[in-house]
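**User:** Hello, beginner here. Are you able to go through the protein record under this note? It all follows right here:
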Amino acid sequence: MLIPACHIHYADTGHGTVVLDVRHGQWLMLDADATRVWHALTRHGSTAGLAQEIAAPTGQDPRTVERGIAAFVDGLLERGVLVDADTDRPAQQRRKRWWR
């Protein structure tokens, strides 16, 4: 299950989603299509079925849409914006925090 990393904050706007990486001081501005992918990830932890949902009404090839979604998600993983909760979360929880 993919989730935003602990140093990521985000908010929806009228034009998409704004993502702040506080560790690196970087902003990401997601357009409407990228926001759909972001919502699928933050609400369900995966993009399963999203390609078909996007492709059907527009007449696009679902495999092409799936490749685009996968490339976008891979980019977010490489940047550290998303993490795999099943493998990364225990390491994050083991870190000692000054407030604990």
